[in-house]
Amino acid sequence: MRIWFNRGYSLAPISAAIMAAEPSIEVYASIGQGLPARPGPIETWVEPEGSTAAYLDWVKNQISCYGIDIFVPTRHRTLIATADLPCKVALPASPPTLALLEDKYSFAEATSVLDCHLPTQLIAGSDALERAITDYAGQVPPCIKPRNGVNGEGFWILTKDGAMRHLRNPDARRIRGDLYISALREQEHEGASHDLVLMEYLPGPEVSFDILCDDGQLLKYAARTKLSNGDQTVQSAHPLERDVASLVAMFGLSGVVNAQFRRHADGSWKILEINARPAGGSVYSESVGCGILADWARLLAGMVTPDNIGQNAVDTHIRFASSIEQVLI
């Protein structure tokens, strides 16, 4: 059985984890031009640049030449969903749902009926932002991010700190509100700016759920709580399980996806986002026996059904160590 992942995150360790758990499955991956091909998949292909039609022709050729049985796309999902390909295509949701999940404002609106909803404002320019942040005077500072984006790109906490704070420690992602507004106005003068979303900054901690699901049914999960010292706890049972199940059902999700929650100052938990793909950290859950990725591959391959997915009890603490991969002289 051969599975192909295209342009996902952390493909190499995810591929290695699947094949280590299920040797009868071969995993292939493809990456963008100029990106490193790391050990893990059977082969890693470099994807061509060009038109979507040319890309689709290349996809069909790779599937035929390598005998791919299951294609799991992250790139060009809408294109691939409607294409006639010579293998099974596994998508985590319908194209309209995938578009909604990638839109932070639309996602917040869709989850407004849930207890874990995080109120979110749509910001369409510097004037709107200046008006909106006045509502946070004297309260917990707001945070802002692009309406669309991944991996925390463009995230900032808007504060009343000193003017140089964001330059002295950019990794803290804190910037004085008036400086952000000034930069946004400058961007608007230079050209069109993109929509932003504004919300209350939550102190945390943050919990990242690696979720295995099928057609809106939660099958199993691993909850990774990110601790202040960089460690993580991994649990196969968590108080937010009912909320996770509600989200999976609401969006009709399948495969392995990731949901991120963060704790409010009042002790409640709020949903930040759902990433319709495996998180890079899912390999940490796999390393302590959760079996999310392995059972996903078995489910795709027809080796198991949703009714007989194994449940592994896990409640552990993991710590990370740095190492040098290579020394160049």
Automatic annotation (TrEMBL):
It comes from the Bacteria. GO terms for molecular function: ATP binding; metal ion binding. InterPro entries: ATP-grasp. Coiled coil: none annotated. Keywords: ATP-binding, Nucleotide-binding. The keyword Nucleotide-binding applies. It holds the Pfam family ATPgrasp_Ter. Residues 251-301 form the ATP-grasp domain. This is Carbamoyl phosphate synthase-like protein.
